[in-house]
Structures are given as C-alpha cells and as structure tokens.
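BUG: 3D viewer hangs when loading the predicted structure for this chain

Environment: internal workstation, default settings.
Expected: structure renders.
Actual: progress bar stalls at 90%.

Input used:
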Amino acid sequence: MWKTIVRRVLVMIPQLFVLSMLVFIMAKFMPGDPFTGLITPQTDPNRLEEMRQAAGFYDPWYIQYWHWVTNALHGDFGDSYSFKVSVASLIGERGMNTLWLSLLSVILVYLIAIPLGVLAGRYQNSFLDKSVVLYSFISYAIPTFVLSLIFLFIFGYQLEWFPTSGTVDVKYDPGTFDYFWNKFYHLLLPAITYALLGTTGVIQYLRSEIIDAKTQDYVKTARSKGIPMRKVYSRHIFRNSLLPIAAFLGFTITGLLGGSVFIETIFGYPGMGQLFIQAIMARDYSVITTLVMLFGFLTLLGSLLSDIIMSIVDPRIRID
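Structure tokens produced before the viewer hung:
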C-alpha cells in the first residue's frame, strides 16, 4: 500500500502545478493589483509605483509566475498588506484555530450521526426512524447562516450560555487550565452548529446501508446460527455499513480544515474561513492566492485520505 500512496502523492504534483497556474492567471484578471490594499488618501502614487517596479509587477507573466512558485516552495508566500505580517505566519496562526474547531466538529458529527443512523436503520419505519429522517431533512434544508444566526442570538445573546466571538478571553494566562478550558468553551457553539448541520449525509448513508445489509445472505446465515441480534449488528452489519462513511471521512476532515466561511464569520471565530472573507474584502492578493492553493491541496489530500481509510476498514479494497 505504501507504494500506491507514494504514487498517488507523485500524481498530486502535476495537479498542484495546474491549480497554481489557474490561481495565478485568475489573480491577474482580478481588478486592481496586489498593492491596491495599501491605497489610502495619504498614499503617495509615486511610492506605489516604486513598489510595483521593485516587486517585478511589470515583468512578463511567466517570470512573475516563476518567482511566485519558487518563493512559495521556500515557504515565502509574501506579506499580508492588510494584517502587516507574513502570510505564512498569519495562516499558521489562523490554521491552528481552524484545526481545533474542525477536530471538535468532526467528533460531534460522528457522535451524533452514527447512533442516529444505526437506530434509524435498525428500527425502520418506527417513530424513531421517522423522527430521525425528519431531523435529517430539516438539517439539510436549513442554510448554514440561518441556523448560525439563530443559535448566536438565542444561546449567545439571549441566554448568554456561550461567548459570541473570539477564541479565548484576554484575562486568562496562556498555559493554564483556565486558559485551555476557556478556549474550548469558545469552540462549543460553532462546533455544535456545524455538527447539527453536517450529520445529514452520515445518517442517511448509514441508515440506507443498514437497511440493505439486513437482507443480505451473511446476516440471514448469522441469524440462522442463533447469534444474538446485538452481535449480528455489532460484528457484521455495522462494520460493512461503515464503508460509505469512511469514504467521506477524508473529505470531511480536509473540508473543515479549509474553514467554514459562514460559521467562522458569523461567530467571529478567527480561523481560515473568516480570514478568506477578510482577505477578499481587503483585496489582500497574497492571502487570497495562498488560501486558494491551500484549499486545493487539502481537497486532493482528502481524496487520498478517504482511499487509505477505506482500505483500512475493508482490507479487500486496494487503492490504485
């Protein structure tokens, strides 16, 4: 399997090259230029022109692309003109916030979805099953920003159960237990919101797989041998029904690492999703192009992770 993984990683290189070309060309067609974000009423036009010439803005596009790629390979993604720091350090800081939010969201999604999907499939057409299906339809239909605003208004401002913005209160010292607990407390409301909206696919796939598995020959054989239904579900049906769920796990993790634009923006959580919106609003070209490249890389990585997870869950599957 390791040879296949290495081969898949090598295949990702030309894909990333094509993506980088598209990102660079699209950035060239965007209005303004990378220095547009620096323009203020006090900005000297001559100084801006000097900065454009010094940065090679008037060089041929392929020379600009070559400089951009080589700098990126050395970890130099340029500076953010709106945040006044390097793009690498800015994304590193925001990326850690998004990482913790993503991990908690994924855990909550599967803690909610797996029991509901198993119970709905096992007790098909029961009141419980119909309730789970109704919940799935509602969570699928409601827009992310609507539920986020409702939860923020009720649990943040009216009941005051959760903080309404930020990652941690400034009164806590880093490294203390209170600091980490307060940081976790800030994660809860956006993570719960995402989890409630993200369970639909897992519940429906798991429910359908369990309903199908109940009619398979290996289940009938197990039941004819007198194996208790609890063991039939835990040892046979549940394991086989996990395959579609495993197929989405890699995409789910990397998708969350890309940042949830709506949730992070509405809850004022400083992650990569919120950073992407802020960069677009400020025309911060260096941050925008780097984030688009990063999101594309995470998508390719998610595909590879899903294949690896599926091969672990079912050894009969081999990735090619």
